[in-house]
What does this fold into?
Amino acid sequence: MDHKIRVLFLPRWYPHRQDPMPGLFIQRQAEALTPFCDVAVLYVHAENHCPNKLEVEFAEENKVRVMRIYYQIPSGSFPLLNKLANFYRYYKTQARALKSIQDFHPDLVHAHVLTRMGFIAMRLSTTRNIPYVISEHWSRYFSENDKFNGFFKKMLTRRIVKNAAAILVVSERLKQAMLDHRLKNKNYQIIPNIIDPGLFRLQFLKHDHEKKTMIHISCFEDRSKNISGFLRAVQALSLERRDFHCLMVGEGPDLAEMKELASFLRIIDTFITFTGLKTGNELVDLINQADFLVLSSHYETFGTVVIESLCCGTPVMATPVGIVAEVIHEGNGMIAPGQGEDDLKQTMVKMLEHCRVYDRQKIRDDIAGKYTAENIGKEILKIYQMILKQQ
It folds into this structure.
């Protein structure tokens, strides 16, 4: 092939004008491919207050051509009819968008997040006679989440997965969860999320103050992040010792409820401080100031904060979810035996005794180069090349 591979991204989630956070990891992946591929992104987004029935935005973002299409969400008194109308508008908008980019002739289609995007990719693959790749990021396949249901949805998803040229997942645990649902494909590949080691960097700070600092970073969604269980574990620990404090970083749907719980447990301010959302250098500073990071989740597909913390040289205590078993070892942290409150408490006790013994420079050195945009971009390029060669 004498030209850059042309790739059409079809993401279910992508940063948009209402919120710059959804699908940020997909955006980073698209941008990581630009040195090797010609990447175009087509993203359709339903919007509650879209002023017009349809609005289109074109942009070039870090060498990625992005077409965002916003459409009005149907309104009415019948929720089921509204849902059906929304599905119809979504697929109709996608079809119109695909027709509008006839001048872009992709060598392959890369859909992100099943099922609807995989269905669109499969149809496009058939009409244009090109292969399609699926990246899955969703936690719905885990038994703890159990959101992958419905006979028709399962049958359609199995067909989409089977016919894809490759299935890319962020962790071995996600791959196994999908296989447990009989989502079979001969070409599963593990492609982790991208972490910026230039941002998440080690700062040489003294950690000799009397109280040890934990940091817990999440989107404050209790069902997955197990924040309530963590707060109860902190409360139990506070009855035995007072030499620690925890920063709760982030915001989300359950933030107010978690603050109320911390107040009820009488640990707010004394043992727990809610900082709100922190990003960029502010977040990096807090991770560096902490003695260790805690991930208390019931389930994760990946666990980005784990890698971000390790890139800062900060050891990690985590439940056995996502990528944890693949990266955490005795040299950089501890894995709790489970997600129960006593599991968390006992592992916190061990970490409080050991957290200042870790070699933070070695933690950073062991992880820093593995999740860069350049490395991940090259890994995906190899998969594309292999698929097109087989074609």
